[in-house]
Structures are given as structure tokens and as C-alpha cells.
Q: What sequence folds into this?
């Protein structure tokens, strides 16, 4: 069964802290996506990875194929980073299988 | 930046009524999707659409659901006879090809009363 699991479910941190959100997935993934869901509900695609590492601004996503694990890092976190971060995978087709999300709250 | 547009943003309907959720995908995208998220739960796949036909559908996408691309630009999800458990946020997404990222719409919150 295609599965994507995230941890932690909830994360609260002080402004400026380095944030790490983890994602593990089952065998058969072809691409791993990191998404951000705003409080209003809208979903924004952050990264798509099949290997290595990608960086965009203060966000960094890494994937370790052998360990079936990906991480999303946020450097110098800011209250505007508060959102739900979702890991999702393609398992040999175009549809996404979603994780349950990590609710991140950054306190000023 | 090109956007996927969904309308309406919020719809309240009586149980048993038909609803049509509308989406305008990005014009040069080839793959289209509907997903839903029941409050407090994870996002679930409903259906994918490519080359003017359904390419895959989930167990949720039963005979009460249908999708259409009526005029080559709009992409609609119809629920024929809504149930209370259809209350959810429905997201449309599009993708230029299988190896590219997705663009999601901002969602339609459907409330069935």
C-alpha cells in the first residue's frame, strides 16, 4: 500500500529557530512533493524531489532514497511561515498520495 | 504567475441536491485533478483527467460523481445527489506533465446541510 507519514503532527517554535519536518514513505515512490496549506485552506506547491536537495529562499528540501525519507527545513523561521506543511508522493502515476500534514506555529 | 481558479469559494447545499464545482486550469496544462479534504483529515485523491477522459479514479469517486471539460478550458466536478459526508474542501489541480509540479486552486468549501 502506498503510504506517506509525517512527523511531528504539530510543531511550535520561536521566531528565528531552525525548523525540520520529516516525511517517510513506502517503497515505489517516483517523486516526493512538499506543499504548504495556508490557514484559509489553499495549497501551494513548494518542492518536487526525486533525489538530492532543493533550496528556495529559506526553505530547503532533502530526500534520501535509500532510507525512504525526506525532510523540509526552514531557516530563520518567521511567524508568516505558520501553516500546515504536507508531504505527498507520486507512486508510479500522476496522482498524489498525501501525508497528514504538520501544523507549524512560529511565535514572535 | 499563472493560477488555477476555482468557483465558488464556498457553497452550501441541501442534502440530495446536485452541485457543480468549477475550475479553470492553467491553459497549457495537460493533466487535471480533483482532490478533497474532509475537515481535520488528509487530502484524498478523487479523479485524474487527461486527454479528455478520466485516467484514474478512487473508490470515493462513485456513480454520484462526474467530471467534464465542457469547453476545453473549464473543468467541472458534479455531485449528483449530495450527502452530508460530501461536506469537504474540494481542490482542483493541474499539471503540465507527469514529471512537473502541481498547481492547486484555492478550493471550494462545500457544506451539505
A:
Amino acid at each position: 500500500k502506498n503510504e506517506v507519514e509525517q512527523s511531528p503532527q504539530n510543531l511550535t517554535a520561536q521566531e528565528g529557530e531552525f525548523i525540520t519536518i520529516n516525511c517517510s514513505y513506502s517503497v515505489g515512490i517516483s517523486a516526493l512533493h512538499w506543499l504548504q496549506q495556508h490557514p484559509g485552506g489553499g495549497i501551494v506547491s513548494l518542492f518536487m524531489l526525486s533525489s538530492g536537495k532543493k533550496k528556495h529562499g529559506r526553505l530547503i528540501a532533502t530526500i534520501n532514497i535509500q532510507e525512504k525519507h525526506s525532510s523540509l527545513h526552514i531557516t530563520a523561521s518567521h511567524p508568516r511561515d505558520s501553516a500546515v506543511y504536507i508531504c505527498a508522493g507520486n507512486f508510479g502515476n500522476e496522482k498524489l498520495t498525501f501525508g497528514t500534514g504538520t501544523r507549524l506555529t512560529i511565535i514572535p | 504567475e499563472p493560477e488555477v481558479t476555482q468557483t465558488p469559494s464556498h457553497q452550501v447545499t441541501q442534502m440530495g441536491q446536485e452541485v457543480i464545482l468549477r475550475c479553470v486550469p492553467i491553459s497549457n496544462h495537460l493533466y487535471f485533478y480533483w482532490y478533497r479534504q474532509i475537515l481535520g483529515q488528509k487530502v484524498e485523491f478523487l479523479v485524474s483527467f487527461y486527454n479528455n477522459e478520466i485516467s484514474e479514479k478512487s473508490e470515493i469517486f462513485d456513480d454520484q460523481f462526474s467530471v467534464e471539460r465542457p469547453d476545453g478550458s473549464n473543468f467541472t466536478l458534479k455531485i449528483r445527489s449530495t450527502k452530508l459526508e460530501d461536506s469537504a474542501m474540494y481542490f482542483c489541480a493541474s499539471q503540465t506533465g507527469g514529471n512537473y509540479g502541481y498547481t492547486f486552486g484555492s478550493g471550494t468549501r462545500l457544506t451539505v446541510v
